Amino acid sequence: MPIATVNPATGETLKTYEAMGEEEIERRLQLAEATFRTYRTTSFEERSALLRRAADLLDEDNESVARVMTTEMGKPLKQARAEAAKCAKAMRWYADRAASLLADEEPDAADVRDSGASRVVVRYRPLGPVLAVMPWNFPLWQVVRFAAPALMAGNVGLLKHASNVPETALYLEDLFHRAGFTEGCFQTLLIGSGAVDEILRDDRVKAATLTGSEPAGRAVASTAGEMIKKTVLELGGSDPYVVMPSADLDRAVRVAVTARVQNNGQSCIAAKRFIVHTDVYDAFAERFTEGMKALRVGDPMEEETDVGPLATEQGRSDLEELVDDAVRAGAEVLCGGERPEGPGWYYPPTVLSGIDREMRIHREEAFGPVATLYRAADLAEAVLIANDTPFGLSSNVWTRDEAEAEEFARDLEAGGVFINGMTASHPALPFGGVKRSGYGRELSGHGIREFCNITTVWQVA
Asked: Does the entry feature the keyword NADP, yes or no (predicted)?
């Protein structure tokens, strides 16, 4: 894929960029290594002041950077504004809490004596330059949720962003520079995916984090494993949305529509498979389908737009193939399902029923505004359907029965179980998945410690 800004609402290429050559990549690696030597010794107070300044600048830039994101990947402008505001919030959250999250820890005194030491301290020390390979769907948030904790821990960042959001990537580098971070603290590498392997093999790069597709995750994990480097992977998701008879059905339907089409349906944590108890299936299916039909599809720059275009032409083709495969195998289209005429990479909100295990859409992630409906006879069958996927990122359960809620929380194979609400990421909550959705955690104290050297200091007086 060329490094270019292509407006998905029109298909027009607005600007292209040359990929960095070997000399420039080498210069930036040298700079990252040199900067880390001094940045690692800065205090939490110094880092906090810089990150708070970045948050203030981001708030000032909210409208302009939101328009950049919408232009590059098509999310509705109102959602882009919210994404920018969320990033500023996360920066302040880590600026306020990093010192306590990474404070020295002292084991129990009896355990210290038993170890033969007079004093033991566990310290969290930074690793060094961390390579971040990031996707286009949340082009600001995905990066900030890595960068904020990494910078507060004393690491420096090297960003390889998706090739279709270069202006957002360059904005991020500029933002941190304007905030006062030394040039080498955060650098954007305008490179293609083919350059990632060699950079990850470089001894100056100490760890990597990737949010993206399963094949991309396999490639990074394979190289990092060979080089024995720490990685955090957040990959795909095919999240279940379970509705039980005791649920507040009106609210469950209303939230279900948002949960499926947020970010034009292009979210790893978007609800994708709607598993509904047979007692309320018909009512849910009817109301949910009507809600999906009522959504306004159009220009993402217009305030009233609910669903904009898919980010890439290939992404729309991939989604169409999943829907067409399901229909050929017997799925029923309750709404949508056909590409509209005209410019841009639009696809309508679509609901499919009658899904079976042989259909590709049952096994693969539908990255767009396409929902699949399943009927479950009871809680046990709902859990079986929910877990019948190679992914395990998050999940949603709607029930007012506390015993049911506890059973779902125990049995669903996912990194998160959201009960009577939509899956969301928040700076205070650990975020990540299991199975083919990846490993490791972002956000919260768990996220900031992922790229730390947890050092035991053992001393005898």
From this structure: yes
